[in-house]
Specification:
With about 325 residues, this protein is of the alpha+beta class. Helices cover about 40% and strands about 15% of the residues. The protein folds into 2 domains: about 250 residues, Ubiquitin C-terminal Hydrolase UCH-l3 (3-Layer(aba) Sandwich); about 50 residues. It is built from 11 helices and 7 strands. It starts with 11 loop residues before the first helix and ends in a 9-residue tail after the last helix. Belongs to the peptidase C12 family.
Amino acid sequence: MSGGWNTIESDAGVFTYLIEKLGVKDVQFEELITLDPDELRQSGKIYGVIFLFKYPTGETRSDTPKDGNFDHEAANNMFFAAQTIQNACGTQALLSVLLNKDGEIEIGKELREFKEFSGEFPPELRGETLSNSDLIREVHNSFARSSPFIDETQRTATEDDDVYHFIAYTSIQGKLYELDGLQPAPISHGACSVDEFPDKVVQVLQRRIGRYPATEIRFNLLACVQDLRIRAREMGDDEALEAEEQRRNEWLWENALRRHNFVGFVGELLKGVVKDKLAQGGDAYGKWVEEAKGKTKKRSDDRKKQGITGDDLE
């Protein structure tokens, strides 16, 4: 393989522009704040959801899922790929939705060719094919947050690390499926029409979250939906259309910032500030340092009074 896969964020703007760069048309992602079927319905035409959760690294693999049933036969009739490499699960989850909605969604030439090429492979070989796709990996990595301190391609998780994992849920051929590349097969959660999807997927997610301690709140849910600008145009809602266009511009700006390493810039800025303080003579530099220490201590004391600890700051 010619390169590694970096970690990407569970962010609607990241996922939306990632799939656009892969050639997908008229699809976007929406972050859901609550586990409410009505909130999901308000997103318009829904293709599936992507769920991010803390993965129990010390847990042994079971022949029986904790919820639903393995459907080994279904793996031959849908796109389901085993996850064979670390950090690729976000892109693998969104492809699990998109490639199983081909026909409803314009997935583009490259993804269609990838789907056709890997279609007859078993899940393990599909996963290897995905991991070795230069196009998909390069697009995925172009949305990774720049870090000068960590080489994500070399980092291996241990049981003491907080490891997070993406999986997909979507309705396929009248059933609700959970598509998780770390599982041996798709997991069926029973009959589910497209109209029933919001209610049934929320029930599954509530049961899953319920298996965690009440103190665990680090979950994220993204809905894969039709581009909301299409609905705004069809309804003649110029205000909604303008708001969506503005949000797209904000996503572009945020994604551009993710690709830049600002450590050098901050270092040069600090050098300039220190040089200016020293040039002022006297004890200007010492007073500036002491003032900064005092402000830092005050912020720390204020957080303690509010019952906020460092562990609460994400």
